Structure formats: C-alpha cells, structure tokens
Write the structure tokens for this entry.
Amino acid sequence: MISTIPKKYAIYVVVSCTGTSVARAIRIVTKMPYSHASLAADSSLRELYSFARSYTPVPLPATFNPEYIGEGTLGKFSVIPCEIYEIPVTEEQYQTFLQLIDHFHACRKQYSYSLIGLLRVKMQIEKELSRKFVCSQFVAYVLRECGVKLEKPACLYSPEDLRYLPQARLLYRGELNRYYQDVNDYFAAPAIHSAV
C-alpha cells in the first residue's frame, strides 16, 4: 500500500531592520533590534506582505504593499538583519491566509498606515482602527484571522512581540539578502539523478 505524505502548510513571519531613518528612529525609541514585520506564503520569501512605504524615497504615503528582497526599500541596503519564523497551519488556515492577502491586494487603496498606531503599540493602548495598521499590527491581524492564537489583541503587537509567538519556530537569524540568495540558489539548482 502506498501512503502519501501530507503536505505541510506554514505562514512565515519576517522581522527585520533596514537602515532607513524611520527604522533607526523606531529602534531608538523602542530599544529593540527590529523595526519592521512582514508575512510570506513560503520559505523562499519571493514575495513579502506588509504595511510599508508606497514609494522608496519617502516614508509616506504607506499602505499594504508587497515587498521584494533586492527591490524598493529592501533593495537599498546590502545588510538587513532579520529573523524568519515558521508558523505551522492547517490547509484551511493557509487558504484563509491567501484569501486575506488577495483581499488586501484588491483593496489596498482603502487602507493606510497608522501613524498613531506606532504610539499606541509603544504605549500598549488597545484600540483597533478600521483600515489602518502599522506593519506588526497587520501581521498579527492576519495571523489572528487565520486562527493563529495570539496572547494579546492584534493592535498591541510590535515586531518584538512577533518573535515570541508560541507556535512560531525560528527558521533563520542573520542577514536577509544572504538568506534569500541561499534559499533561491538551492531551489534553482538542478536535481541530481542517479541511475538505478
């Protein structure tokens, strides 16, 4: 009897810190190593999702945006410290994740970055704003909507808090560009077949 191995599903959380002036200011105020949070649908990180600047040179306007390593703000810096976490989910939770990302893509003009949210996260003031997020609130919101258990309201999550999600497994700690290059080189390498 041939048995099939069930497919594993996971959502990936990336916390990082670029060298932008906003990132440096956030790190000074929070005294934490990471200032940004993103989500990915797979470990290759070919496309990340977050609330971030819409135009590389200026921090505002900002809204839901896909992010690509080596492009935009993530292309301005050769060294981007990061941690990548894997959160196992069911197939149903993964499908919910994809639907949520599709929704944010389709409705991105209805959303905006919450400047006041930065202060509320820092001061731990609980108030969800309709259609306004900072990056870490967005990540926590999506995880909550997918059924991932959170230890506090999504609107109170900082990048630092995301590092300690009970279900999350640290996959990588280091430099984001190096991880991306190594993982994508691995998947691009031709398979070696042996004769039987």
